[in-house]
Amino acid sequence: MAGWGWARAVRGLLLDVSGVLYDSGADGGVPIAGSAEAVRRIKASGLKLQLCTNETQATRENFVRKLRAMGFDVSVAEVTAPAPAACRLLKERGLRPHLLVHDDLIPEFAEIDKTNPNCVVLGDAAENFTYANLNKAFQLLIGMEKPVLISLGKGRYYKETDGLKLDVGAYMKALEYACDIQAEVVGKPAKRFFESALAELGVPPEQAIMIGDDIVSDVGGAQQCGMRALQVRTGKYRPSDENHPEVKPDAYVNNLAEAVDIILQQL
Amino acid sequence: MAGWGWARAVRGLLLDVSGVLYDSGADGGVPIAGSAEAVRRIKASGLKLQLCTNETQATRENFVRKLRAMGFDVSVAEVTAPAPAACRLLKERGLRPHLLVHDDLIPEFAEIDKTNPNCVVLGDAAENFTYANLNKAFQLLIGMEKPVLISLGKGRYYKETDGLKLDVGAYMKALEYACDIQAEVVGKPAKRFFESALAELGVPPEQAIMIGDDIVSDVGGAQQCGMRALQVRTGKYRPSDENHPEVKPDAYVNNLAEAVDIILQQL
Question: Is A113 helix (H, G, I), strand (E, B) or coil?
Fold first, then answer.
């Protein structure tokens, strides 16, 4: 296929999950046609594969359990999510977090020293975003000589079956303003997060392709990191994305199955 | 005292309340030493006095009752507060608010039509800042063709006897970010609010002095209005305020009593 010569160098793929592998819904989700087979074909080809998601309401174990039940041959080691990336960052910098996250995410931080906190980690805490909990996080930050706020994403809101809900980004802004600080965002589109995913993929950016449905977080973020990036026309894709003022994917594909077809033809 | 020549023209004082007259707290609050006597000396001197507060956790009636119980000789007419100013604005523009405010403030809005809301009024709701209540306000705003968010102040935090607490400004920022809108602020440091307080004081800005503990809301806001402004080293004052990159008070004083001592010496 014309215009895909650059894909000959590919050794690994980063895949967004929601909107690429499945569409989320009231019943927990519906696989996108051809995506489970596409994942099997990637693996059979010898290409490396890593899932790159901003999910922070479940541990990777529970997230993978859901994907496997939908027919996806994936393992926990193949998931790059904000919480484990935050754990690496915490260890690298000797940071001991106070956690304001969803209860179901807490096990991801089991091995992290949380005594005498010197930073705050903020996730999509949902019902845990109480007045008391937000004050506690604020008081810890404002009491630090150099406050460190690590936010697992910066989304504005998301849709649930009973309506739109405030996402972690709104609470991040509240704490940023109250403390006059800038949060460090872990998760797409942060460069550091894509670098983590590449490290787990074991492939340099020029030999990796990101495939996602979000023109800014997936495509723009990956390209900022030196990767090629494809946008699928599934999930949250909208035709207006093709006129985005700042981000232009290296190619469009109708879905993951078509992306894999074309990439494997180049090898 | 050197450098206070400008105080000779003073005819009226605007006083912030929390952090200047008393330190607030779950226990009701504790008067700051010398402040009740300072208020009496202001009145005895013939200077006019108006309290200019962003207090939104009580009606003015209850607020004044609390201050009088602490020994302050003040009346309801001497209090300029955001809720009555917001009510004027709502009436002028035919707005019907959804209220996310402290329970004790609700009577201030008794005469306002709140059916089928076409704006959100945000106050320091404290324990009412639940995840559910913030989502409700967000859902109403995001569902409006032209979202109108009126915030009773934009303070970052305030000091209570058991520690610092997030103020309304932090929640305002969360909603602004989630909805991609700008709130309209009623209360300090809005110019219009200071102008209301000056009108109630009955003194032009060049003959008024603002005394507060907040370098931005009190000092910066009053100076923007053409007033002189002093920062007290009580309440939420922090030594780092003295290096603020944008706002410089006309003078620092240790507390209200010292401010009144010096001002009365100039007359």
Answer: coil
Q: Rounded to an integer, what distance in angstroms lies between the CA atom of residue A134 and that of residue A175?
A: 8
CA A244 from centroid of its chain's CA atoms: 21
Q: Which two tokens stand for residue B57?
A: 């956790």
Find out whether B242 and B252 touch, Cβ atoms under 8 Å: yes
* Rounded distance between C-alpha atoms, residue A229 and residue A252, angstroms: 9
Question: Does the pLDDT value for residue A1 go beyond 80?
Answer: no
The Cα A188–Cα A145 span in angstroms is 28
Q: For residue A189, is the peptide bond before it cis, meaning its omega torsion is within 30 degrees of 0?
A: yes
Contact A126 B131 (CB under 8 A): yes
Q: How far is B126 from chain A (nearest CA, A)?
A: 7
> Does the reported pTM lie above 0.90?
no
Handedness of CA B13, B19, B22, B27 (dihedral sign): positive
Cβ distance B156 to A139 less than 8 Å, yes or no, reads: no
CB contact under 8 A, B177 and A157: no
Element at A231 (helix H, strand E)? strand A228-232
Report d(CA A135, CA B170) in Å as an integer: 11
A contacts of B175 (beta carbons < 8 Å): 170
- What was the ipTM of the complex prediction? 0.87
Distance from CA of A147 to the nearest CA of B (A): 15
The whole-angstrom distance between B68's CA and the closest CA on chain A is 30
